[in-house]
Amino acid sequence: NNQVALPATALASPLAVRVTDQASVPVSGVTVEFAGAGSASGSSSALTDAQGIARVSWVAGSGPGTGSQEVRAQISGNPAAAAATFTIRALGTLRNVAGDGQAATPGALLSQAPTVQVLDTDQRPIAGVTVNWAVASGLGSAVPSTTTNPAGQASVQWRIGPQGGRDVHALVATVEGLPTTRFTASGAVDNLFLGFVDEGSDEWSLFLNGMPGRQVQVAVEVSARGFPTWQRVVNTPVEWIVTSGGGTVSAGTTVTDGNGRAVTTWTFGSELGEGTQRLRAQMVGTPATSIEAWGTTTGPPSSVAITSGNNQSATVGTQIPFFLNVKVTDASFREIGGVTVTWTVVPVSAASGQLTGQTTTTTEFGQASARLTLGAAPGPVVVTATVTRPDGVNLVARFDITAVP
Questions:
Q1: Distance CA 364, CA 298 (A)
Q2: Which of 124-138, 144-158, 262-276, 381-395 has the lowest mean pLDDT?
Q3: Using DSSP, how many helices (H) and how many strands (E) does the chain show?
Q4: Are 92 and 176 in contact (CB under 8 A)?
C-alpha cells in the first residue's frame, strides 16, 4: 500500500492481501480479484497460498485525475466479504521551492537550505519520497538524500566549496524517474589584492617602471570575508585584460591556487609615459569585482648614478659596512625597473674582494645594490656597476673602497 510510481509504470512491489476466516486463520486456494486505476501486469486475479496471501504485479494508471489512485482487492464470487483498498500515488513533478541563487563566503553553509517539492500528476504533494542530492560543481558538501514531508518538501544543508565567483557552485536534486532540478550559488568575494611579484620572489610592489618589452610576474590574491578572519578563495578563475599601453599577458585567464593567488606574466607595450601601461584583473563573470594596475614605460637607460656606499673602508677579510647602491634612470630622469646591473671587482692593486652577487635587477625605483667582502691583502679596491643599453653602449658607475690592515 501507499506506493509511489511514475504513471504507466510497474510498482516496485506487488499488491498483496491475506484472506482469513472468522477465526483469523489464513485460507488457501481462494481467488482474489484486483481492480481499479491502472492494470495488472499479468492476471488481475490470484489464488491465496498456504499463508492465505494473494499477490499481483500492478502498473500505475496514467492520465488526468490519476495523481492519487485506488485499487480494490475482493474475494471472487463473495461480494459480502470485506474488500481491501490500496492507494497509489503517480509521480508528476520535482520542483525547486526555496534556496536557489544564494551567495555566501566560500566554504560557508548557505543561510537557506535548498528545498524541493514532489507533486503527483494532479499537482498535489507526496510525502515519503526519497530525494537524492549531489554536488555538481564547486567542491561543496551535502548529505546524499532526504525524504519529503507531508507538504511534499525535502531540504538539505549545503556547504559551498572554497571557490569564488558567480554561480560557480551547483547542487542537483533527483527523484528516480523525474527530471532533475538544479540549484546554483555564488562564492562572494570581498577583496582583490593586486601586486607585482619581482623575479619570482614573494615581495610585492605596487609600482612598475620599465622599458617597452619588460616582463614582470603579476599576481592577484582573492579573499573573502570569513569568520574569524579573511580566507583565501581557491580554484577560482581570474581574467587579465590589458586596458592600455599595448602590452600583452602570457595567459588571459588563470586560476587561483591553494593560497588564493592567480598569476600571469605582463609584457609592457611600446607606448611611453607615466601610467601608460594598465592591466585589469577581474573575477570571471563578475566584472564589478576588479582591480587595475598601472605601469610607467620609460626610455632606455641614460645614467647609472651612485646613491650611497662609495668611499668606504673596512678591515681586510671583512664585509664592508654598507651596501653599494646605484640608481638607473632614462634621459627624462625617470627611474627604470627591471634593468640588469653587472657588478665587477676591478683589480687595481693586490687588494681584492668578493661580491654577494655579480648581477642584480633594479627595483621599481630604479635601484640596485651589492655588497663586498674584502680579501686578505690591504689596498684600494674598485667595484663597477655596469648597465648595457639596448644599443650596446655600457653605462658604468665606479666605487672606490679601501681595505685596511
A1: 11
A2: 262-276
A3: 0, 37
A4: no
Lookup: cell for 385: 656597476
Mean predicted lDDT score pLDDT of the chain = 90
Residues 6+ apart with CB under 8 A from 287: none
Query: From CA 317, how far away is CA 351, in angstroms rounded?
Result: 10
> Is 49 in contact with 74 (CB distance < 8 Å)?
no
Mean pLDDT, residues 38-47 taken together = 94
- What contacts 227, CB < 8 A, 6 or more positions away? none
Distance CA 404, CA 384 (A): 20
% the chain with pLDDT above 90: 69
* Cα–Cα separations (whole angstroms), residue 374 to 135, 355, 382: 65, 9, 11
Residue 19 makes CB contacts below 8 A (sequence gap 6+) with 26, 27, 30, 32, 48, 52, 53, 54, 75
Beta partners for residue 164, in sequence order: none
Query: Rg of the chain over CA atoms, in angstroms?
Result: 40
Residue type, 23: A
Burial class (CB in 10 A: 0-12, 13-18, 19+), 207: middle
DSSP-assigned beta bridge partners for residue 327: 305, 367
| 83, three cell numbers | 474488500
pLDDT given at position 169? 93
Q: Which of 130, 144, 142 is nearest to 170 (CA)?
A: 142
Give the chain's end-to-end CA distance (angstroms, integer).
106
Ramachandran bin of 2, using left for φ above 0, alpha for ψ from -120 to 50, beta for the remaining angles: left
Containing 243, the helix (H) or strand (E) segment is strand 237-244
